[in-house]
Amino acid sequence: MQLKKEPFVKLIRSYVKMHADRGFVPYRNVSGSVQGAETVLRIAGQALNEGDSLRAVRVGFCVIEEMADLLQMCDDSDGIVGGLIEETLGLIAAATAKTSDTLSSKEKRLLLDMILKETRLGKLGDWRISLLESAVHLVEDAGTRQLWEDCVRKFEDQDGINEWDSYFTREVAMLKYRLIERFDGQQSAADYLRAN
User: Fold this and answer.
1) How many helices and strands in the chain, by DSSP H and E?
2) Is the pLDDT assigned to residue 1 strictly greater than 80?
3) 92 and 55 in contact (C-beta within 8 Å)?
4) DSSP track, 84-145
C-alpha cells in the first residue's frame, strides 16, 4: 500500500504558513514554523519503533523535503530547520541499519530506490552524503551496488563534483571503500585506498 504523503505535507506547510510573513519566516517564528514537521517526525519515529522502516523513511522524506524548502525562505540562524533535517537523516540511517537484516530483498531494493531518488534533490547539498551512507546498508549484490555507484557517478558528472570538492570526494571515497571491502575483499579495498 502506497503511503499518502499529502496529509503530512499539509500539516507541515500549515505551520510554516501560519508563521510566515509575506512568504518568509523570520528568525523569531522559526521554532513555531517547524512544529508540524516535528509532529510528522514523531510519527516517522513511531513507525520505526513498530518495525515499519519503509513507512518511517517515507514519512521522514516528507520532513526532509519540506524543511529543505523552508531553509530557502527563513532565517535559520539557530539551526533549528537544519537540525530537524539532521534528526530526520539520523532516523533514516537507523531505519536502514536496524532493519537491513530483517527486510526481504524486495523491500531492501524498494528502500534503496527511495533513498537514491531522494538524493537527487538538488536542494539537499551535502546532506546527500548521509543518504548515500544510509543506502550503503541496503546494497546486497552486484545489481544494487551498481545502482548506488551510478547515483554517485551522476553527482560527479552533473554537479561538476571533482577533485577540488574534497569533502564530497573524501566522504564518498570512504563509502566506496566499504562497498569494495564488502564485495571485493580487503586487498581490493586497500588498493582502492592507495589509488585514491
Assistant:
1) 10, 0
2) no
3) no
4) HHHHHHHHHHHHHHHHTTTS-HHHHHHHHHHHHHHHT-GGGTTHHHHHHHHHHTT--SHHHH
- Separation CA 21–CA 65 (nearest Å): 21
How far apart CA 18 and CA 29 sit, in angstroms, is 9
d(CA 178, CA 136): 8
The pLDDT tens digits for 132-190 are 999 999 999 999 999 999 999 888 776 555 554 678 888 998 999 999 999 999 999 98
pTM of the model as a whole: 0.91
Residue 24 grid cell: 518568509
For the record, the C-alpha cell of 102 comes out as 530483517
| Residue 76 contacts residue 82 (beta carbons within 8 Å) | yes
Cα 98 to Cα 8, 22, 49, 94, 164, distances in angstroms? 24, 42, 10, 6, 35
